[in-house]
Write a structure and sequence with these properties.
By secondary structure, this protein is an alpha+beta fold. Strand 16 (253-255) and strand 17 form a beta hairpin. It folds into 2 domains: 11-185, no CATH class; 193-319, Cyclophilin, CATH 2.40.100.10. It has 4 helices and 20 strands.
Length: 323
């Protein structure tokens, strides 16, 4: 009827925290346009969040960095939360109850999911059954702020934004909709961090003595890190080849700029780079790295390409990632 207000639906952002983004697996085949791939920093936690809900792996969800975020349900829905422990709780009628991590759970209309500061890990993934229904740009909903693409107008989430959810998000909440990731697949983000390095395109351009610095040094993650690249502080690696022609960059590639301080390039990396890349981080090590707080000390070790490839193939098959 004219003048009749329609009640809002979906999930409202009450507090976005320092950085909350809509992400799906990423925007593929766009490097030729100079655009970043985007996608989740921690694909392991992302995939489990979708699997808990029976979503396709293309389902879009929220990547929440550091925490301090809250979300209000305008309708019944089923969510899942994986990744960093942000001391989640659900507030209903003024009462709060804790919500365990690495699980799916119901959120009823009028309830609010509140996330505190991350106490273990750095990034959490909040998924809804059916995925968040934002506009797809170039085949993806992934947010890349530097390209102003995806998500909500190519920007991080802001207070008051209401995220549309799928029509099938309203699971019968009288039926148990709680699933749990098996304990053996839940990482302990407090464990010492050891990162596996595989040979990169410029590996042969360095001497063994130069590269030994990487394996003999404990590096500290710099606060000057972001979704484009994780920077390290520690013993500088002596200068390698000069005058390189810029070339394509893969996820996890280790760049060594003139100052000798390593940079691991991540989801929002540039498409081309002219610094040498002697190593590439294994997939599993990438997901471990992105859950580390700035200031965390890490060690590098030589990785085995055959083993790393087998791990990745098993992961892709298990989650039916690209089908």
């Amino acid at each position: 009827m004219p003048g009749l207000e329609v009640a809002p639906s979906g999930l409202e952002v009450r507090q976005p925290g320092p950085l909350s983004l809509i992400q799906d697996p990423g925007r593929f085949g766009v490097a030729g346009l100079g655009l970043s791939q985007g996608g989740p920093m921690d694909l392991h936690a992302f995939c489990w969040a979708n699997r808990l809900l029976g979503n396709p792996m293309s389902g879009a969800m929220l990547e929440i960095t550091l925490g301090q975020a809250s979300f209000f349900a305008h309708q019944d829905m089923t969510l899942s939360l994986c990744g960093a422990d942000m001391q989640a709780k659900i507030v209903s009628n003024g009462e709060a109850r804790p919500q365990a991590n690495w699980r799916s759970f119901p959120l009823k209309a009028g309830e609010e999911l509140q996330l505190g500061t991350a106490v273990s890990g750095l990034r959490a993934y909040l998924a809804v059954k059916g995925g968040f229904q934002t506009q797809a740009i170039l085949g993806s909903r992934a947010t890349v702020v530097r390209n102003k693409l995806g998500g909500t107008n190519g920007e991080k989430l802001t207070k008051g934004a209401v995220l549309k959810v799928s029509d099938n998000s309203q699971t019968n909440l009288n039926v148990s909709c709680t699933n749990k990731v098996p304990d053996r697949y839940q990482p302990n983000y407090s464990d010492p961090v050891t990162l596996e390095l595989l040979h990169g395109p410029q590996y042969m351009d360095y001497t063994l003595e130069q590269l030994a610095t990487l394996f003999d040094t404990r590096y500290r993650i710099s606060p000057n890190s972001d979704r484009m690249g994780i920077r390290f502080e520690g013993q500088a690696v002596k200068a390698g080849p000069a005058g390189m022609i810029s070339e394509g960059i893969s996820a996890g590639a280790m760049q060594l700029p003139p100052d000798g301080q390593p940079i691991i390039l991540m989801s929002d990396r540039q498409t081309l780079g002219g610094y040498p890349k002697p190593f590439v981080l294994s997939r599993y090590s990438q997901w471990c790295l992105v859950q580390c707080m700035p200031g965390t000390e890490v060690s590098f070790v030589p990785g085995d390409l055959t083993h790393a490839s087998k791990q990745w193939q098993e992961f892709v098959r298990f989650f039916e990632l690209f089908e």
